[in-house]
Amino acid sequence: MKFQVDVQASSKYSVYIERGLIHSVATLTPAHAKVVVLTDRLVPTQWVSSVMDQFDDPLLITVPEGESSKSLRRTELIVDEMLDAGCHRDTVLLALGGGVIGDLGGFVASVFMRGIPYVQIPTTLLAQIDSSVGGKVAVNTGLAKNIIGGFYPPHVVCIDPDVLHTLPKEEFANGMAELIKYGLILDAELFAMIENERILQQLPETIYRAVSLKQQVVEADERDAHYRQILNFGHSIAHAIEKASNHNVSHGQAVAMGMAMMIQGKPFEERVLKVFKRYGLSTTYSENPAALIDYISKDKKASTDGINEIFVHEIGSCEIETISYTTMKTILEGAQ
Ligand code: NAD
Ligand code: GLY
Question: Both 155 and 190 in a single domain?
C-alpha cells in the first residue's frame, strides 16, 4: 500500500510512505550535479548502500551518532567536506537517518551556499512520524537545544517503514513517545489504537495517520507563531532534561517524562502511564525536577512573562496557556 501526504506550506512538498521505498529514492530526488548522502555511524550499512547504489559517484558523509552532532562545529566540518568534494549549488543533500540527521542535514542544506535542496529519508520511527515533516532544521549550543535554526522545507520526504526492522527496541520506544503525544493532543482514536497495540500490525497506516496530523498543524502555522506549539507538549521539560543530563536521556524518553509531569493529577493519568510502560518508556526523572527551571527559561517558548505550555485536559485535545515560571516550578515540584 502506498500513501502520499501533500504539505501545502511556504513551499509544497510531498511525503511518500511505502514499504521498500528506500530502494527507489533516486526517482524522487530532484535534478542535481552531485548527491551528498549524510548519515551517522549507527545507521545500518544495508540502508546506506541501498541509497548510495542508486547514484553516480555520491559523496558519503558519516557523522558520529547522537545529539552532539547537531552543532555548528559539525556543520562547518560537513560544509568543508562538501567544498573539498567539489559541491556547488547544484548539489542535493539526502538526510538518511533519524531526527538528528534530519535536523542537521536540513540545517546544512539551508546554509550551504545560502541553500540547496535536500531530501528527508527518515530511518527511525520518531523521524518518520514527526521530525522529517514540517521543515524545522536546527543545531544546538552548549546551553540550549535547537536554538540555532530555521524553517527550511525538504524537497520531498521518503518514508520506508521496512527500515524500522533494524531499529533497536529503545529507539522504537523513543518514536512511540512522539506517537503517544499525537494521540494525546489531537487524536483520541489514535491513542486507543496505541493502547490496544493495533498500531504494531498497521505501521504504514499509523505513520500515514501521524504524518497527516502533522501536515494539518504545519499548514495552519508553519512558522510556529502559536498553534504549532501544541506539538511541543511535554517538550520544554523534555529539552531541559536532555540538556541537564548532557543528552544521556534520549529525546523520546525525555518527552515521555515531560508529558508525564504535565498530566499529573488528570483523571486519565494512570491510563497514559500504563501505555508509556507498555512501550518501554520510563517516566521517572531520577534527578531533582525543580532544578530544570533554569533550562526551561532558555527554551524558545519562553519569554520574560513566562512560558507557553501545552495542557491536555482530555485525551485527544489540548490548549496552549502562558504560565509563569512560578507555576512551572510548582508543576516540576509535583514530580519530586
Ligand atoms: P537519532 O537521530 O539520534 O537516531 C537514534 C539512533 O538510531 C541513532 O544512533 C541512529 O544511528 C540509529 N538508527 C537510525 N535509523 C536506524 C535504523 N533503521 N536501524 C538501526 N538504527 C538506526 O534520534 P531520533 O530519535 O530519530 O531523533 C531525535 C532528534 O530529533 C532530536 O535531536 C530531536 O530534537 C529531533 N526532533 C526534531 C523535530 C523536528 O520537527 N525537526 C521533531 C522531533 C524531534
Ligand atoms: N516540535 C515539532 C514541530 O514543531 O515540528
Answer: no
